[in-house]
Write a structure and sequence with these properties.
Two copies of one chain form a homodimer.
Chain A (H helix, E strand, L loop, with lengths): L13 H14 L8 E2 L1 H7 L4 H13 L3 E4 L3 E4 L4 H22 L5 H15 L4 H16 L5 H23 L3 H17 L3 H20 L6
Helix pairs in contact in A: 1-3, 2-3, 4-7, 4-9, 5-6, 5-8, 6-7, 8-9
The structure holds a DNA duplex (30 and 30 nucleotides).
DNA sequence: ATATTGAATATTGGATCCAATCTGGTTTAT
DNA sequence: ATAAACCAGATTGGATCCAATATTCAATAT
Protein backbone atom coordinates (compact mmCIF):
# COMPACT_ATOMS: atom_id res chain seq x y z
CA UNK A 1 0.00 0.00 0.00
CA UNK A 2 1.20 3.45 -0.96
CA UNK A 3 0.95 6.46 1.35
CA UNK A 4 0.24 10.04 0.30
CA UNK A 5 3.37 12.12 -0.21
CA UNK A 6 2.75 14.01 3.04
CA UNK A 7 5.49 16.72 2.79
CA UNK A 8 6.61 17.12 6.40
CA UNK A 9 6.96 20.85 5.84
CA UNK A 10 10.71 20.67 6.16
CA UNK A 11 11.26 22.11 9.64
CA UNK A 12 13.49 25.04 8.77
CA UNK A 13 17.14 25.13 9.78
CA UNK A 14 18.15 27.14 12.81
CA UNK A 15 19.84 29.78 10.69
CA UNK A 16 16.63 30.33 8.72
CA UNK A 17 14.55 30.57 11.88
CA UNK A 18 16.92 33.16 13.29
CA UNK A 19 17.01 35.03 9.97
CA UNK A 20 13.23 35.28 9.77
CA UNK A 21 12.87 36.28 13.40
CA UNK A 22 15.51 38.99 13.18
CA UNK A 23 14.12 40.30 9.90
CA UNK A 24 10.68 40.56 11.43
CA UNK A 25 12.00 42.26 14.54
CA UNK A 26 13.91 44.78 12.44
CA UNK A 27 11.18 45.75 10.00
CA UNK A 28 8.61 45.98 12.78
CA UNK A 29 10.88 48.33 14.66
CA UNK A 30 11.33 46.15 17.73
CA UNK A 31 15.02 46.60 17.15
CA UNK A 32 15.92 50.25 16.73
CA UNK A 33 18.21 51.78 14.16
CA UNK A 34 21.82 51.52 15.15
CA UNK A 35 21.12 48.91 17.77
CA UNK A 36 23.93 46.34 17.79
CA UNK A 37 23.12 42.69 17.23
CA UNK A 38 25.19 40.67 19.70
CA UNK A 39 25.75 37.19 18.34
CA UNK A 40 26.05 35.62 21.76
CA UNK A 41 22.89 37.22 23.07
CA UNK A 42 20.86 36.18 20.01
CA UNK A 43 22.26 32.66 20.16
CA UNK A 44 21.11 32.33 23.76
CA UNK A 45 17.67 33.67 22.85
CA UNK A 46 17.20 30.93 20.27
CA UNK A 47 19.02 28.19 22.15
CA UNK A 48 21.60 27.75 19.45
CA UNK A 49 25.26 28.51 18.96
CA UNK A 50 26.59 31.61 17.23
CA UNK A 51 27.12 29.81 13.92
CA UNK A 52 23.53 29.97 12.65
CA UNK A 53 23.27 33.49 14.05
CA UNK A 54 26.23 34.58 11.95
CA UNK A 55 24.69 33.07 8.86
CA UNK A 56 21.44 34.88 9.55
CA UNK A 57 23.27 38.17 10.04
CA UNK A 58 25.23 37.78 6.82
CA UNK A 59 21.98 37.24 4.95
CA UNK A 60 20.43 40.30 6.59
CA UNK A 61 23.46 42.28 5.54
CA UNK A 62 23.01 41.13 1.97
CA UNK A 63 19.44 42.42 2.14
CA UNK A 64 20.57 45.77 3.48
CA UNK A 65 18.75 45.42 6.78
CA UNK A 66 21.92 45.50 8.87
CA UNK A 67 25.41 46.87 8.40
CA UNK A 68 28.46 45.06 9.71
CA UNK A 69 32.00 46.06 10.44
CA UNK A 70 34.75 43.56 10.90
CA UNK A 71 35.36 42.66 14.55
CA UNK A 72 32.73 45.21 15.54
CA UNK A 73 29.60 43.40 14.60
CA UNK A 74 26.28 44.24 13.05
CA UNK A 75 23.89 47.09 13.73
CA UNK A 76 20.38 47.62 12.46
CA UNK A 77 20.62 49.74 9.32
CA UNK A 78 18.99 53.13 9.25
CA UNK A 79 18.15 55.31 6.29
CA UNK A 80 18.84 58.97 5.72
CA UNK A 81 15.92 61.01 4.35
CA UNK A 82 17.64 60.99 0.98
CA UNK A 83 17.93 57.21 1.04
CA UNK A 84 14.33 56.88 2.16
CA UNK A 85 13.25 59.03 -0.75
CA UNK A 86 15.21 56.88 -3.16
CA UNK A 87 13.61 53.70 -1.88
CA UNK A 88 10.17 55.24 -2.39
CA UNK A 89 11.16 56.28 -5.92
CA UNK A 90 12.23 52.71 -6.58
CA UNK A 91 8.90 51.43 -5.30
CA UNK A 92 7.06 53.99 -7.42
CA UNK A 93 8.87 52.63 -10.44
CA UNK A 94 8.52 48.89 -9.81
CA UNK A 95 5.21 48.36 -8.06
CA UNK A 96 3.03 49.92 -10.77
CA UNK A 97 4.53 47.39 -13.18
CA UNK A 98 3.69 44.54 -10.82
CA UNK A 99 0.08 45.55 -10.51
CA UNK A 100 -0.20 46.16 -14.24
CA UNK A 101 0.94 42.59 -14.78
CA UNK A 102 -1.32 41.33 -11.99
CA UNK A 103 -4.66 42.88 -12.95
CA UNK A 104 -5.49 40.63 -15.93
CA UNK A 105 -4.55 37.60 -13.81
CA UNK A 106 -6.77 38.33 -10.81
CA UNK A 107 -9.43 35.71 -10.12
CA UNK A 108 -12.81 36.48 -8.57
CA UNK A 109 -11.63 34.76 -5.40
CA UNK A 110 -8.50 36.87 -5.19
CA UNK A 111 -10.46 40.08 -5.68
CA UNK A 112 -12.89 39.03 -2.96
CA UNK A 113 -9.97 38.37 -0.64
CA UNK A 114 -8.46 41.74 -1.50
CA UNK A 115 -11.76 43.47 -0.82
CA UNK A 116 -11.90 41.84 2.62
CA UNK A 117 -8.36 42.92 3.41
CA UNK A 118 -9.07 46.41 2.16
CA UNK A 119 -12.02 46.63 4.52
CA UNK A 120 -10.06 45.12 7.38
CA UNK A 121 -7.41 47.81 6.92
CA UNK A 122 -9.93 50.65 6.85
CA UNK A 123 -11.70 49.48 9.96
CA UNK A 124 -8.57 48.69 11.94
CA UNK A 125 -8.32 50.29 15.36
CA UNK A 126 -5.05 48.91 16.68
CA UNK A 127 -2.12 51.03 15.48
CA UNK A 128 0.16 48.05 16.00
CA UNK A 129 -1.68 46.19 13.26
CA UNK A 130 -1.77 49.00 10.69
CA UNK A 131 1.48 47.99 9.06
CA UNK A 132 0.61 44.32 8.70
CA UNK A 133 -2.86 45.02 7.33
CA UNK A 134 -1.51 47.52 4.85
CA UNK A 135 1.14 45.18 3.58
CA UNK A 136 -1.30 42.31 3.53
CA UNK A 137 -3.62 44.20 1.20
CA UNK A 138 -0.93 45.19 -1.26
CA UNK A 139 0.72 41.77 -1.32
CA UNK A 140 -2.61 40.14 -2.02
CA UNK A 141 -2.98 42.19 -5.18
CA UNK A 142 0.67 41.72 -6.16
CA UNK A 143 0.46 37.95 -5.67
CA UNK A 144 -1.46 37.60 -8.94
CA UNK A 145 1.53 38.89 -10.85
CA UNK A 146 3.99 36.44 -12.37
CA UNK A 147 6.87 38.93 -12.14
CA UNK A 148 8.69 37.24 -9.30
CA UNK A 149 11.89 39.25 -9.54
CA UNK A 150 9.94 42.50 -9.54
CA UNK A 151 8.19 41.23 -6.43
CA UNK A 152 11.51 40.36 -4.80
CA UNK A 153 12.66 43.92 -5.39
CA UNK A 154 9.43 45.39 -4.06
CA UNK A 155 9.46 43.14 -0.99
CA UNK A 156 12.97 44.14 -0.11
CA UNK A 157 12.30 47.83 -0.74
CA UNK A 158 9.21 47.69 1.46
CA UNK A 159 11.19 45.87 4.15
CA UNK A 160 13.69 48.68 4.24
CA UNK A 161 11.08 51.39 4.77
CA UNK A 162 8.52 49.38 6.71
CA UNK A 163 9.20 51.35 9.89
CA UNK A 164 8.65 54.66 8.14
CA UNK A 165 5.46 53.35 6.55
CA UNK A 166 4.14 52.40 9.96
CA UNK A 167 5.01 55.82 11.28
CA UNK A 168 3.32 57.46 8.31
CA UNK A 169 0.14 55.44 8.88
CA UNK A 170 -0.29 56.60 12.44
CA UNK A 171 0.34 60.21 11.45
CA UNK A 172 -2.71 62.41 11.06
CA UNK A 173 -4.66 61.43 7.99
CA UNK A 174 -2.31 58.53 7.26
CA UNK A 175 -4.85 55.77 7.68
CA UNK A 176 -7.69 57.75 6.23
CA UNK A 177 -5.86 58.68 3.05
CA UNK A 178 -4.32 55.23 2.60
CA UNK A 179 -7.72 53.61 3.07
CA UNK A 180 -9.27 55.84 0.43
CA UNK A 181 -6.47 55.16 -2.04
CA UNK A 182 -6.68 51.43 -1.39
CA UNK A 183 -10.34 51.45 -2.40
CA UNK A 184 -9.46 53.29 -5.58
CA UNK A 185 -6.77 50.79 -6.51
CA UNK A 186 -9.05 47.88 -5.68
CA UNK A 187 -11.83 49.30 -7.79
CA UNK A 188 -9.54 49.69 -10.78
CA UNK A 189 -8.48 46.08 -10.37
CA UNK A 190 -12.09 44.92 -10.19
CA UNK A 191 -12.81 46.84 -13.38
CA UNK A 192 -9.84 45.23 -15.06
CA UNK A 193 -8.30 48.65 -15.69
CA UNK A 194 -4.61 47.81 -15.39
CA UNK A 195 -3.41 51.22 -16.48
CA UNK A 196 -5.49 52.98 -13.86
CA UNK A 197 -4.51 50.55 -11.12
CA UNK A 198 -0.90 51.10 -12.09
CA UNK A 199 -1.23 54.89 -12.05
CA UNK A 200 -3.07 54.89 -8.70
CA UNK A 201 -0.41 52.65 -7.22
CA UNK A 202 2.29 55.07 -8.30
CA UNK A 203 0.32 58.00 -6.85
CA UNK A 204 -0.21 56.07 -3.63
CA UNK A 205 3.50 55.50 -3.20
CA UNK A 206 4.53 59.00 -4.19
CA UNK A 207 1.92 60.45 -1.88
CA UNK A 208 3.28 58.41 1.00
CA UNK A 209 6.78 59.57 0.13
CA UNK A 210 5.78 63.24 0.10
CA UNK A 211 3.86 62.95 3.32
CA UNK A 212 6.78 61.23 4.94
CA UNK A 213 9.49 63.59 3.76
CA UNK A 214 7.65 66.57 5.15
CA UNK A 215 8.38 65.12 8.56
CA UNK A 216 12.05 64.41 7.96
CA UNK A 217 14.02 67.64 8.26
CA UNK A 218 17.74 66.91 8.13
CA UNK A 219 19.58 65.18 5.34
CA UNK B 1 56.12 58.90 16.80
CA UNK B 2 52.68 58.44 15.42
CA UNK B 3 52.00 56.43 12.30
CA UNK B 4 49.63 57.52 9.59
CA UNK B 5 46.22 56.00 10.06
CA UNK B 6 47.25 53.77 7.22
CA UNK B 7 43.91 52.07 6.57
CA UNK B 8 45.26 48.60 5.90
CA UNK B 9 42.52 48.37 3.37
CA UNK B 10 40.82 46.10 5.81
CA UNK B 11 42.11 42.80 4.49
CA UNK B 12 38.75 41.28 3.90
CA UNK B 13 37.49 38.43 6.01
CA UNK B 14 37.77 34.94 4.61
CA UNK B 15 34.04 34.71 4.08
CA UNK B 16 34.09 37.86 1.96
CA UNK B 17 37.02 36.61 -0.10
CA UNK B 18 35.22 33.35 -0.75
CA UNK B 19 31.99 35.19 -1.52
CA UNK B 20 33.62 37.44 -4.10
CA UNK B 21 35.53 34.61 -5.70
CA UNK B 22 32.48 32.39 -6.00
CA UNK B 23 30.36 35.25 -7.29
CA UNK B 24 32.94 36.00 -9.96
CA UNK B 25 33.23 32.35 -10.94
CA UNK B 26 29.48 32.02 -11.23
CA UNK B 27 28.74 35.13 -13.26
CA UNK B 28 31.67 34.45 -15.57
CA UNK B 29 30.36 30.99 -16.20
CA UNK B 30 33.36 29.11 -14.83
CA UNK B 31 30.85 27.26 -12.70
CA UNK B 32 28.02 25.90 -14.78
CA UNK B 33 24.33 26.02 -14.02
CA UNK B 34 23.28 23.27 -11.68
CA UNK B 35 26.83 22.55 -10.62
CA UNK B 36 26.92 21.71 -6.90
CA UNK B 37 29.10 23.77 -4.58
CA UNK B 38 30.81 21.37 -2.18
CA UNK B 39 31.68 23.17 1.03
CA UNK B 40 34.63 20.95 1.79
CA UNK B 41 36.12 21.29 -1.65
CA UNK B 42 35.78 25.08 -1.66
CA UNK B 43 37.21 25.30 1.85
CA UNK B 44 40.31 23.38 0.73
CA UNK B 45 40.66 25.62 -2.33
CA UNK B 46 40.84 28.72 -0.14
CA UNK B 47 42.73 27.15 2.75
CA UNK B 48 39.96 27.82 5.23
CA UNK B 49 37.36 25.83 7.08
CA UNK B 50 33.80 25.32 5.93
CA UNK B 51 32.44 28.07 8.20
CA UNK B 52 33.34 31.05 5.98
CA UNK B 53 32.33 29.01 2.94
CA UNK B 54 28.87 28.51 4.37
CA UNK B 55 28.53 32.20 5.06
CA UNK B 56 29.56 32.98 1.51
CA UNK B 57 27.05 30.51 0.12
CA UNK B 58 24.22 31.89 2.24
CA UNK B 59 25.00 35.36 0.88
CA UNK B 60 25.05 34.07 -2.68
CA UNK B 61 21.69 32.45 -2.04
CA UNK B 62 20.31 35.77 -0.83
CA UNK B 63 21.48 37.30 -4.12
CA UNK B 64 19.81 34.56 -6.12
CA UNK B 65 23.04 33.26 -7.60
CA UNK B 66 22.73 29.82 -6.01
CA UNK B 67 19.89 27.70 -4.73
CA UNK B 68 20.24 25.56 -1.64
CA UNK B 69 18.34 22.62 -0.25
CA UNK B 70 18.69 21.45 3.30
CA UNK B 71 21.26 18.69 3.74
CA UNK B 72 21.73 18.67 -0.03
CA UNK B 73 23.75 21.79 -0.50
CA UNK B 74 23.93 24.57 -3.00
CA UNK B 75 23.92 24.53 -6.78
CA UNK B 76 24.57 27.36 -9.22
CA UNK B 77 21.21 28.90 -10.11
CA UNK B 78 20.05 28.85 -13.68
CA UNK B 79 17.33 30.87 -15.36
CA UNK B 80 14.49 29.73 -17.58
CA UNK B 81 13.92 31.81 -20.72
CA UNK B 82 10.91 33.35 -19.02
CA UNK B 83 13.00 34.33 -16.00
CA UNK B 84 15.72 35.68 -18.24
CA UNK B 85 13.17 37.81 -20.04
CA UNK B 86 11.89 39.17 -16.74
CA UNK B 87 15.37 40.15 -15.61
CA UNK B 88 15.89 42.05 -18.84
CA UNK B 89 12.55 43.79 -18.38
CA UNK B 90 13.65 44.79 -14.91
CA UNK B 91 16.89 46.16 -16.28
CA UNK B 92 15.00 48.01 -19.01
CA UNK B 93 12.96 49.67 -16.29
CA UNK B 94 15.69 50.57 -13.82
CA UNK B 95 18.80 51.35 -15.83
CA UNK B 96 17.27 54.15 -17.93
CA UNK B 97 16.46 55.89 -14.64
CA UNK B 98 20.03 55.50 -13.45
CA UNK B 99 21.49 57.05 -16.57
CA UNK B 100 18.91 59.82 -16.54
CA UNK B 101 20.06 60.68 -13.04
CA UNK B 102 23.70 60.31 -14.02
CA UNK B 103 23.89 62.49 -17.14
CA UNK B 104 23.73 65.91 -15.44
CA UNK B 105 26.35 64.73 -12.95
CA UNK B 106 28.97 63.54 -15.45
CA UNK B 107 32.27 65.39 -15.28
CA UNK B 108 34.52 65.95 -18.29
CA UNK B 109 36.93 63.41 -16.81
CA UNK B 110 34.25 60.78 -16.44
CA UNK B 111 33.09 61.27 -19.99
CA UNK B 112 36.66 60.96 -21.24
CA UNK B 113 37.03 57.75 -19.30
CA UNK B 114 33.76 56.45 -20.70
CA UNK B 115 34.89 57.29 -24.23
CA UNK B 116 38.08 55.31 -23.70
CA UNK B 117 36.16 52.34 -22.43
CA UNK B 118 33.69 52.58 -25.27
CA UNK B 119 36.57 52.45 -27.73
CA UNK B 120 38.25 49.62 -25.85
CA UNK B 121 35.07 47.60 -26.11
CA UNK B 122 34.66 48.21 -29.82
CA UNK B 123 38.22 47.27 -30.62
CA UNK B 124 38.34 44.21 -28.39
CA UNK B 125 39.46 41.00 -30.04
CA UNK B 126 39.45 38.55 -27.15
CA UNK B 127 35.94 37.07 -26.66
CA UNK B 128 36.86 36.30 -23.06
CA UNK B 129 37.14 40.02 -22.37
CA UNK B 130 33.91 41.12 -24.08
CA UNK B 131 31.79 40.76 -20.95
CA UNK B 132 34.13 42.69 -18.69
CA UNK B 133 34.63 45.52 -21.19
CA UNK B 134 30.90 45.81 -21.77
CA UNK B 135 30.10 45.98 -18.10
CA UNK B 136 32.98 48.33 -17.48
CA UNK B 137 31.60 50.84 -19.98
CA UNK B 138 28.09 50.82 -18.56
CA UNK B 139 29.19 50.96 -14.95
CA UNK B 140 31.39 53.94 -15.70
CA UNK B 141 28.38 55.89 -16.92
CA UNK B 142 26.18 54.65 -14.08
CA UNK B 143 28.78 55.60 -11.47
CA UNK B 144 27.89 59.27 -11.85
CA UNK B 145 24.40 58.57 -10.57
CA UNK B 146 23.60 59.05 -6.91
CA UNK B 147 20.85 56.42 -6.98
CA UNK B 148 22.71 53.77 -5.07
CA UNK B 149 19.76 51.45 -4.50
CA UNK B 150 18.87 51.56 -8.17
CA UNK B 151 22.47 50.65 -8.88
CA UNK B 152 22.31 47.76 -6.41
CA UNK B 153 19.29 46.41 -8.24
CA UNK B 154 20.92 46.82 -11.62
CA UNK B 155 24.16 45.21 -10.47
CA UNK B 156 22.36 42.19 -9.13
CA UNK B 157 20.16 41.89 -12.22
CA UNK B 158 23.21 42.07 -14.47
CA UNK B 159 24.97 39.48 -12.32
CA UNK B 160 22.13 37.07 -12.87
CA UNK B 161 22.22 37.34 -16.66
CA UNK B 162 25.92 38.00 -17.12
CA UNK B 163 26.44 34.60 -18.71
CA UNK B 164 23.71 35.20 -21.25
CA UNK B 165 25.09 38.66 -22.01
CA UNK B 166 28.47 37.15 -22.73
CA UNK B 167 26.88 34.58 -24.99
CA UNK B 168 24.91 37.28 -26.77
CA UNK B 169 28.05 39.34 -27.36
CA UNK B 170 29.86 36.55 -29.14
CA UNK B 171 26.84 35.80 -31.29
CA UNK B 172 26.86 37.15 -34.80
CA UNK B 173 26.46 40.92 -34.77
CA UNK B 174 26.47 41.00 -30.96
CA UNK B 175 29.63 43.04 -30.58
CA UNK B 176 29.02 45.14 -33.63
CA UNK B 177 25.52 46.18 -32.61
CA UNK B 178 26.45 46.71 -28.94
CA UNK B 179 29.40 48.85 -29.98
CA UNK B 180 27.22 51.02 -32.17
CA UNK B 181 24.63 51.47 -29.45
CA UNK B 182 27.31 52.28 -26.89
CA UNK B 183 28.51 55.14 -29.06
CA UNK B 184 24.96 56.44 -29.31
CA UNK B 185 24.48 56.38 -25.57
CA UNK B 186 27.84 57.99 -24.96
CA UNK B 187 27.11 60.76 -27.43
CA UNK B 188 23.80 61.53 -25.76
CA UNK B 189 25.62 61.75 -22.42
CA UNK B 190 28.24 64.08 -23.87
CA UNK B 191 25.46 66.30 -25.23
CA UNK B 192 23.81 66.35 -21.82
CA UNK B 193 20.65 64.84 -23.29
CA UNK B 194 19.45 62.73 -20.38
CA UNK B 195 16.16 61.78 -21.99
CA UNK B 196 17.86 60.46 -25.11
CA UNK B 197 20.53 58.60 -23.12
CA UNK B 198 17.75 57.05 -21.07
CA UNK B 199 15.76 56.02 -24.13
CA UNK B 200 18.80 54.58 -25.89
CA UNK B 201 19.70 52.62 -22.78
CA UNK B 202 16.23 51.11 -22.70
CA UNK B 203 16.46 50.25 -26.40
CA UNK B 204 19.90 48.75 -25.85
CA UNK B 205 18.61 46.44 -23.14
CA UNK B 206 15.44 45.49 -24.94
CA UNK B 207 17.39 44.81 -28.11
CA UNK B 208 19.72 42.50 -26.21
CA UNK B 209 16.71 40.76 -24.71
CA UNK B 210 15.07 40.20 -28.08
CA UNK B 211 18.26 38.98 -29.68
CA UNK B 212 18.82 36.61 -26.79
CA UNK B 213 15.31 35.18 -26.64
CA UNK B 214 15.41 34.28 -30.31
CA UNK B 215 18.06 31.75 -29.38
CA UNK B 216 16.22 30.28 -26.40
CA UNK B 217 13.56 27.88 -27.63
CA UNK B 218 12.01 26.03 -24.72
CA UNK B 219 10.34 27.62 -21.71
C1' DA C 1 15.83 -9.52 -13.71
C1' DT C 2 13.74 -6.12 -10.72
C1' DA C 3 12.66 -4.01 -6.69
C1' DT C 4 13.49 -3.45 -1.75
C1' DT C 5 16.36 -3.37 2.28
C1' DG C 6 20.24 -1.97 4.69
C1' DA C 7 24.91 -0.74 5.67
C1' DA C 8 28.99 2.29 4.38
C1' DT C 9 30.29 6.69 2.79
C1' DA C 10 29.71 11.48 1.75
C1' DT C 11 27.89 15.85 2.89
C1' DT C 12 25.61 19.28 5.38
C1' DG C 13 24.06 21.69 9.98
C1' DG C 14 25.51 22.92 14.40
C1' DA C 15 28.39 23.12 18.96
C1' DT C 16 32.49 24.08 21.19
C1' DC C 17 36.93 25.87 21.44
C1' DC C 18 40.78 29.11 20.12
C1' DA C 19 42.77 33.33 17.97
C1' DA C 20 42.40 38.14 16.56
C1' DT C 21 40.58 42.53 17.48
C1' DC C 22 37.98 45.96 19.80
C1' DT C 23 36.56 48.64 24.10
C1' DG C 24 36.91 50.85 28.40
C1' DG C 25 39.16 52.03 32.34
C1' DT C 26 43.67 52.49 34.75
C1' DT C 27 48.33 53.74 35.00
C1' DT C 28 52.17 56.50 33.93
C1' DA C 29 54.99 60.17 32.03
C1' DT C 30 55.26 64.96 31.01
C1' DA D 1 45.84 67.98 34.65
C1' DT D 2 46.37 65.86 30.17
C1' DA D 3 47.46 62.59 27.00
C1' DA D 4 49.76 58.46 25.63
C1' DA D 5 50.54 53.50 26.92
C1' DC D 6 48.58 49.46 28.50
C1' DC D 7 46.11 45.85 30.59
C1' DA D 8 41.59 43.03 31.21
C1' DG D 9 37.19 41.89 29.63
C1' DA D 10 34.08 41.63 25.75
C1' DT D 11 33.15 40.42 21.06
C1' DT D 12 33.89 38.75 16.58
C1' DG D 13 36.20 35.45 12.96
C1' DG D 14 37.62 30.95 12.19
C1' DA D 15 39.04 25.82 13.10
C1' DT D 16 37.89 21.49 14.66
C1' DC D 17 34.80 18.18 16.19
C1' DC D 18 30.13 15.86 16.45
C1' DA D 19 25.25 14.95 14.93
C1' DA D 20 21.74 14.62 11.35
C1' DT D 21 20.63 13.60 6.81
C1' DA D 22 21.46 12.18 2.10
C1' DT D 23 23.52 9.12 -1.34
C1' DT D 24 25.53 5.05 -3.14
C1' DC D 25 25.89 0.41 -3.72
C1' DA D 26 25.83 -4.34 -2.33
C1' DA D 27 22.77 -7.98 -0.49
C1' DT D 28 18.39 -10.10 -0.50
C1' DA D 29 13.66 -11.32 -1.62
C1' DT D 30 10.11 -11.83 -5.07
Amino acid sequence: MKLKSMDISATASASTIVFNALRKAIIEGQLEEGEPLRQDEIARLFNTSRIPVREAISRLQEQGLVRTQRYKGAVVAGLSPKETAEIFDLRALVEPEIIRDAVPRMSKELLAEAREKCAAFSSATDPMAYGDLNRDFHETLYSASELKFFQEIADNAIDRVERQIRAQLVMSNGMERAGREHFGILEACENGDADLASKLTRDHIQGAKASLLKHLKQD
